[in-house]
Amino acid sequence: MLFCVVNVKLTKLFEDVIVSETIGIVNTIGVERVKVDKEPKALELKSVLPKLQVQHVSKAFQSNNGGVYVLEDINLEVGEGEFVCIVGPSGCGKTTLLNIVAGLEKADSGDVWVNGSKINGAGTDRVVIFQEAALFPWLNVVKNVEFGLKLKGIGSSKRRNTAIEYLKMVHLTKFQNAHVHELSGGMKQRVAIARALAMNPEMLLMDEPFSSLDAQTRWILHYELQNIWLKTRKTILFVTHNISEAVCLADRVIILSTTPGRIKKEFFVDLPRPRDDNDVNVAEYSTRIMKELKVELDKVVKCEMDADSCVECDIKCTTEVSEKTDIGGGI
Amino acid sequence: MNIVKRIIFYILLVGIWELLYRLGIWPAYVLPSVVSVCKTLIHGFHDQTFLIGIAVSMKRIAIGYGISIVIGILLGLLIGRVRIFEETLGSLISGLQTLPTICWLPLALLWFGLNDWSIMFLVIMGAVLSITIATDAGVKNVPLLYMRAAKTMGARGWKLYLEVIIPAALPYIITGMKQGWSFAWRSLMAGELLIVCVGLGHLLMVGRELNDMSQVIAVMIVIIIIGILVDRLFFVKVERRIRERWGLVKT
């Protein structure tokens, strides 16, 4: 393995935080793995199983603007307690990949393993936080947080306590009896995070959860999410098109290329937490990652400019280019 | 202000009615006086004929409407969620809705005979289609996002229906129930008018047979008031609560 499993640095930096022994993948700055291991490791050979293994996943899919894209031979491993961000231009299939891991979509080929067992559909071990909070308007805040626990058949007083505990973590206990529509966008996402954490899942899957929020709210939530991660040490797979967001949050940033969607490069981010979006080091990392991504963005732009005559990329572009299409926004 | 306007309007209406009566253009069996209608109302409640009529009618509609809610929601869920039912049953339901409820009367009479069940069958046929169609629409409009979120939190099978699909479709279902209620109420009255067996509709017919226009109008007033009361006391309140909860209106 290229990354060591020692975390002297992290423990030094956060002496007040209890860090378990196997987590915290620290690497020297600038080490880049151009390709992840092609060969899937035999499970029994590993002393510590990775939390998540994505093996040879491929899928053809249609994006919102009608173009047909492909995700090709994705191999990915995420360790226990690791925070991994997937970055890529629009149409690279990052959301599709996350949905496949969540079990909401089926891959054309390839498998996803969680804790060494193959997934079969959606499961409570992988809770998704969507771009829209997806809170249920017929339930108030605390009942939304209790939702998953109720489905698990946990008694009402016990699930109320758990829900309050996690609402405390996102600082929203005051709003426990509020209706969903009374909350701001940022508060809704915090409730969604509390709802996901209350399920105590093996991992959190986050699909551009902050992309529809304003800059300040996003900044606050980056800070809060980092603190939550430091407290809970959940394994997180986070999809975004925002590079500085990825650098700010992740242990490891994975860049997906577009057409075909492949893992292009990985960056390890070794900066102390909690990090700030505007920090110089974060900006420096972002610039380097941006350089890698530039090529991919150019592809997307070129394709959109050329509209229906893309020769270089084999995307079946539509003449109408969706206005929403982001080209690595937030940079 | 609204309520004052309304009161003035009704006083005027009653005034014009009384004036027309006093002008003596029509005989009393065509247009009775306000006073005689009031007397009939008081007398009707006093000797309990109206109360019995109301009780019998309410019992019929409670059973018929209750059954149609259950059947309507179940059918709506089936049509909304299962492709084969949508393609087959869906077209039948929308076809049947064009049939006026009273057209079921001959069939009901032959199936059930001259009794309560015929009337309740009419009530069910009046309400069930509206509820089915509204539930179907509600189910189809449940945002995919809710379904996905619920699935990742472990909602499956009947729990998905009970905890997500039905609550998410509830605003639609309530609208359908409201419409269904007014259809059911109409069907009930039509049935009671045509099948002789106690009830408000029957009281109307008795008024006609006795040439007692006061009773006819008194019973009509009772029927209108019950219709309004159910709408105000139940549907308006429930709708307001849902709107507040979902944030569809500023509270």
Primary descriptors:
heterodimer, A: about 325 residues, alpha/beta, 11 strands, disordered C terminus, B: about 250 residues, mainly alpha, 10 helices, about 0% strand
Please characterize this protein's 3D structure.
The complex is a heterodimer of chains A (331) and B (251). In chain A, α6 (215-232) links the parallel β8 (203-207) and β9. Chain A is built from eight helices and eleven strands. In chain A, α3 (141-151) runs parallel beside α5 (185-198) and α4 packs across α5 (185-198). Chain A is globular. Residues 1-47 and 310-331 of chain A have low confidence and may be disordered. Chain A is an alpha/beta fold. Chain B contains ten helices and no strands. Chain B has helices at 2-23, 34-46, 49-81, 83-96, 105-112, 116-140, 144-152, 157-194, 200-209, 213-246. In chain B, α3 packs antiparallel against α8 and α8 packs parallel to α9 (200-209). The mean pLDDT of chain B is 92. Classes of the chains: A alpha/beta (331), B mainly alpha (251). Chain A binds chain B through residues 102-104, 122-124, 126-128, 130, 132, 134, 136-139, 147-148, 150-152, 179-182, 195, 199, 205, and chain B through 145-146, 148-155, 159, 163-164, 167-168, 170, 244-247.
- Gyration radius of chain B, rounded: 22 Å
Low-confidence stretches of chain B: none
Number of strands of chain B: 0
Please state the overall shape of chain A, judged from the principal axes of the Cα atoms: globular
- The H-and-E topology of chain A, N to C, reads as HEEEEHEEEHHHEHEHEEH
Could you tell me how far the N terminus lies from the C terminus of chain A, measured between alpha carbons in angstroms?
Answer: 32 Å
- How many beta-strand runs of chain A? 11
Round the mean pLDDT of chain B to the nearest integer and report it.
92
Main sheet characteristics of chain A? 7 strands, mixed
**Arithmetic mean pLDDT of chain A:** 79
Distance between the termini of chain B: 20 Å
- Give the DSSP E fraction of chain A (strand runs of 2 or more residues): 15-25%
Could you tell me the strand content of chain B as a percent range?
under 5%
Q: Report the biggest beta sheet of chain B as strand number plus sense, adding barrel if it closes.
A: none
Order of helices and strands of chain B: HHHHHHHHHH
Tertiary shape of chain B: globular
Proportion of helical residues of chain B = over 70%
Any low-confidence stretches of chain A, pLDDT <50, length ≥5? Answer: 1-47, 310-331
- The number of helical runs of chain B is 10
